[in-house]
Amino acid sequence: MAVTATKPATRPQAGPRSRSGPAAVAAALVLLVAVLAVVDITQGTAAVGPGEVVKALTGRADPGDASVVVASRLPRMAAGVLVGVVLGFAGGVLQAVSRNVLAAPDTLAVNAGSYLALGVAGATGLTLPLLASSGVAFVGGLAAAAVVLGLSGLGAGTVRLVLAGTALMLGLNSMTDGLLLLFPEQTHGLYQWNQGSISQNGFGGVLQMLPVALVGVVGLLLAARRVDALALGDDAARGLGVPVRATRVTVVVLAALLSAAAVTLAGPIGFVGLSAPALVRPLGQWLRGFGRSRTFLPVAGLTGAALVLGSDVLLRALVPDDLAVAVPTGVVTSLVGAVFLVVMALRLRDSEQSGPPDRLRIPSRAVFLATLVVLVAVVVGLTIAGVLVGDSKLLLGDVANWAQGRAGRTVSFVLDTRVPRVLAALAAGAALALSGTLTQAVTRNPLADPMVLGVTGGGALGAVLLVTTVPSVSGWGVAGGSFAGAGVAAVVVFGLAARGGFRQNRLVLVGIGVASATTALISLLIVLTDPFNATKALTWLSGSTYGRTLPDVVPVALALALGTFVAVARRAELDLVSLDEDTPRLLGLRPAPARFGFLVVSVLLSATAVACAGTIGFVGLMAPHAARALVGRRHVRVVPVAMLLGAALVCAADLLGRTVIAPAQLGAGLMTAVIGTPYFLYLLVRSRR
Question: Phi, psi (5° rounding) for residue 358?
Fold first, then answer.
């Protein structure tokens, strides 16, 4: 796969540049941060204005006002400044050493690694002091960054890095969510912490993390000259006597240390490490000093502090005080960062493929039929196992009696709850697989997936909105909300990506940005709702078929029937639009209407699957890939094989999730994410070769 290295993150552009500009920019940022800090101190549920703050700082305030200012407001402001500075430093230096403008603690899965490490520590019952927690978070974040950088390749294309980071993040977060569901008491509060909040109870946390942050910042400033040399390229750096590998490892370790300090103090504050350096980088076109890391990194740190404090101030200005306390600052920064990622995606050149090309081979008809027979047998076997195996084991005779209405009360109760679960898993898996097949064909992107492209996230947002606000909503209502959310997300993603003909890089990056925004909004809904609805939403988001009834399966079954009919009836058009832009026109087919129709069907399939079984990731990616590997690229063969593979995968995941650790259960979505993440990363490694 041909990739092109992006421009060095801190290299200045040609043009007139001012020498005194960096000092003026830094002074302006310091003033901005100071103003935001003052405003942030005055915001909160207690009526403490600027006058009371001044009195508290001079020792003349009432004890109550002084306690609010010293114990809550000042520590919150200080945490915001510290977190913003260290994330700005970490993002700036990661972009420099990787020569990738989208490198950041978020896209390198550092936050997800830290989240999992702390989740494991909590699940095992360990009670750690703050510094020890920072060490645990550091180890987890560093390991995740090493995996992403190793898979994506330093200096490689932007999309590869973001895809590797996103895939690993989904897998690690799914594992952590499983721990939250299995150990709710030991991990209490970890979900809210994962949304990122700078609220503090005293200066203890800030003072403990300050030395860690200073070590990382000073270390990066000392290594600044070597970082500048790396930005010129590995060969040029070696020519200047810079040890490339040692420098890169040292810088990544220091960046992970800074990220761990921020995560430990305030939880993951999303996208600050991506946005802050990107906002500073254009200044290098006019201001000479920003070509050097010793100037660029501190200014990026100040910009990060302004972003964090500005997000906190904006949140408390727009949301009522009693609700603003519960809303994490990280939700706001994630929304801002998601928009920023979409804007950057629209500006990036499309010079690299997003995935490996499929091999052009046409297996014989006998191979196709044999594959079909084997997969049908596997699906039938899994269906029987799903119906018979569980907390109560049954026999085929019990199922026969139940079907004829002659079963006992216990058997009837078990099968009345178990059969709809199995049918929901089968239908959702087949629908997601068909949705992924249509999406990959239309976009000609082998790494396109309803979840990666944000369509699943939009459907989940619409469904969670109804689940948390209308607890008595019916299955059809959830399906309608899910379809509305998925439709809006699809319009945004495909509408923006359509400029230029669904270019692969733009489509994937815009989709990831929209998916990040929907995740932030879902987190906001869960944090604001009551604990009962929050638990219900979390269970549903894990991709669970628990509590499903036959009416819940009807919408996805109807969508699946429609999608299958369209895919089979229009199989020739599907083959043509998956080739290129010119071939369909030469044969008299207008690709735009055909593409639009297939995308509408794909969104309908994904939305109804989400409404039926929650968010289940990677099925729409793995099933079409495996189908093409087995039977070739003709969609008359790919469609049935992919649907059978998807149904088998989700049914097996659901069966394992409710039997392996019974009586506890894990959602099918968590199981497919654990399986799908290694497969997705394998595809990236394969495409790199």
Answer: -75, 145
Per-residue pLDDT tens over the stretch 452-472: 778 888 888 888 888 777 767
Q: Choose the CATH number for 85-321 among 1.10.1040.10, 1.10.3630.10, 1.10.10.350, 1.10.3470.10.
A: 1.10.3470.10
DSSP H helical ranges for 470-549: 475-497, 504-528, 531-541
Residue 419 has pLDDT above 80, yes or no: yes
Rounded to an integer, the average pLDDT of 528-538 is 71
Cα–Cα distance for residue pair 407/409, rounded to 1 Å: 7
Flag whether pLDDT at 189 surpasses 70: no
Of 372, 399, 393, 391, nearest in space to 663 by CA: 391
State the DSSP code for 12. P
Does the pLDDT at position 67 exceed 80? no
Give the 3-state secondary structure of residue 287. strand
Provide CATH 1.10.3470.10 ranges for the chain.
Answer: 85-321, 365-688
Pick the closest to residue 176 from 689, 681, 670, 687 (CA basis). Answer: 670
The span from the CA of 634 to the CA of 358, in Å, is 12
The 10s digit of each residue's pLDDT in 424-455 is 999 999 999 999 999 888 877 776 778 777 88
Give the predicted TM-score (pTM) of the model. Answer: 0.76
Encode 238-266 in three state secondary structure. HHCCCCHHHHHHHHHHHHHHHHHHHHHHH
Residue-wise pLDDT tens digits, 564-593: 999 988 888 888 877 766 676 676 677 677
CATH level 3 topology of 365-688 = ABC transporter involved in vitamin B12 uptake, BtuC (1.10.3470)
Average pLDDT, the chain: 79
Examine residue 663 and say whether the peptide bond preceding it is cis (omega within 30 degrees of 0). yes
Where b means 16+ CB within 10 Å and e means fewer, 214-235 reads: eebbebbbebbebbbbbbeebe
Q: For residue 95, with 0-12 CB atoms within 10 Å meaning exposed, 13-18 middle and 19 or more buried, which class applies? A: buried
Residue predicted with more confidence, 58 or 307:
307
The phi, psi pair for 59, rounded to 5°, reads 80, 20
Tokens of 218: 């000073």
